[in-house]
Amino acid sequence: MEELTDELRASFDKVLSTLNTQAREKTESLVRSLKASLDALTDSAKAREKIDQMSSEVTADNPYSRLMALKRMGIVEDYEKIRECSIAVVGIGGVGSVAAEMLTRCGIGKLILFDYDKVELANMNRLFFRPEQSGLSKVEAAKETLVEINPDVQFETYNYDITSMESFSHFCGRLKEGALDGGQLDLVLSCVDNYGARMAINSACNEIGQTWMESGVSENAVSGHIQLMVPGKLACFSCAPPLVVASEIDERTLKREGVCAASLPTTMGIVAGLLVQNVLKHLLNFGQVSECLGYNAMKDFFSLMVLQPNPSCSDSWCLKQQELFAQKVKAEEKNRAEIGSGEVEEDLPLHAENEWNIVVEDDPVESAGQKSELNEAKHKPAEGLKFEFEPAKSSVNNDELVAGSEKDIGELMSQLDQLK
Amino acid sequence: MDEGTKSVLQKIPLLRTNAGPRDAEGWNRRLKEELLAVIKYVSNNKEQDRDWFFIQPDEKGIKWSGKCWYYLDQVRYEFELEFEIPATYPTTAPELKLPELDGKTAKMYRGGKICQTVHFQPLWARNAPHFGIAHALAMGLGPWLAAEIPDMVQRGVISSFAK
């Protein structure tokens, strides 16, 4: 009898323990799913709904009220226009990510982001990215944050190197057809950190006649610049060596041991701010758009100048754009003469009232001119600016050039292979 | 630039054709010149018993790969070398990559792209479009190896590359 009771008790305990485990598992799973639903609810409560029309109503929950106030204050005539604008940001680093955030907060219509890099902890001395985003592609991580900030903005992201043969045509295609209406973009922003990528943007923009803005921060982190490029009207990136801020720090004494480049969140934030300020002025037609602006952080000195296109630019598309621009100016002059003076609203290029050769500095008009003339005093950059390097040599000795060969490419390849 | 690099550069023929890979017809001519210049440079090196790299292009001449090596205290350190001809070539130089050394030195961008000295870009731009692949190796990779290998050996991070 006692044995039977023990046996019964044992099996009863077993059943009880199984039931307990099952109940616990069920409860835990229920708690988990409840928590997930709660998180989702909290998230959706935090994220705002899309807004169809920008309102100027001053309420705490209108994200555009302070921007629309620019109209009431008479700074901007038509702020809503920004929602029709499409911009590409190339390079989502210390400058590009901040510029993209500024444009997102301003309610830009569409942003296309290009970068092939990943977020890493070494980026944390700059703004925008967070440590937990390490390992994500910069474009993906940026989109993730920006969509939350402003769901009204459309995003397109490309995680590739625009200079590579595989991506370059696709890149050109997106500039040409990536706008909200399927047409060409309003503006391309270069926020890259190297000459090759800037040159790739320059080539693409010259080919399709795309207005763009270049930006850069020096390797020693204490200067930066922005430059407006309007193909045919202003110097392109190939017309002259790159314009940079003259730092008065001798390159040869610059200590570069163990590092490629230094960077500061301050300088990068300032340059991003200058860049996007210029973008807003250009898009929304207020103030004066800067053609080339240099910022020296050591002295807090700003330089302004205009660089005209080089009639012997090495980029053949730049020369074609120069010709097109000259024709356009001629046609406008003719048009103006025919219509008579004054009363007609002319379809002039943006900021024509500034004429393209008026500088804010005291210096006379600067021109890239012929490359061979660059060293002449009259083609010197404005105070505080300099060309990054000397222009290309105009000619080389014939006897230094490679001699012709009867062999074809296949034969030469196997000749090289034999040298292994 | 040091005298050694300068005299090496002077013996590499300059290229004639200003064409990149986006210009199919011009690129054929340019590729032929590139091959001739690289062959000349490798031959120069072999003659002087200073052979230090080997490269071969793919069919289109866009992707190049091979090896480069550096001797230090009678030990040969050898690395994979690769690079791609960019869409804007020859206005801009190719970015040379030593993928195996990624993360082993600060003088490198992600993926193993070597960080060029301040002299590289100005010199390339000044000589565009006459400088080619052979010149990029001679004035870009050569000086980089000479500066960075001794440092990496000293830090003990590349002993596995000793042959």
UniProtKB/TrEMBL annotation, chain A:
GO terms for molecular function: ATP binding; metal ion binding; UFM1 activating enzyme activity. Signal peptide: none annotated. Residues 373-385 have a biased composition (Basic and acidic residues). Keywords: ATP-binding, Metal-binding, Nucleotide-binding, Ubl conjugation pathway, Zinc. SUPFAM superfamilies: Activating enzymes of the ubiquitin-like proteins. InterPro entries: D-isomer_DH_CS1, ThiF/MoeB/HesA, ThiF_NAD_FAD-bd, Ubiquitin-activating_enz. This is Ubiquitin-like modifier-activating enzyme 5. It comes from Rhodosorus marinus.
UniProtKB/TrEMBL annotation, chain B:
Keywords: Ubl conjugation pathway. This is Ubiquitin-fold modifier-conjugating enzyme 1. The active site is at C115. GO terms for cellular component: cytoplasm. InterPro entries: UBQ-conjugating_enzyme/RWD (IPR016135), Ufc1 (IPR014806). Belongs to the ubiquitin-conjugating enzyme family. UFC1 subfamily. One of its GO terms (biological process) is protein K69-linked ufmylation. Gene3D superfamilies: Ubiquitin Conjugating Enzyme. E2-like enzyme which forms an intermediate with UFM1 via a thioester linkage. It comes from Rhodosorus marinus. It comes from the Eukaryota. It holds the Pfam family UFC1. GO terms for molecular function: UFM1 conjugating enzyme activity.
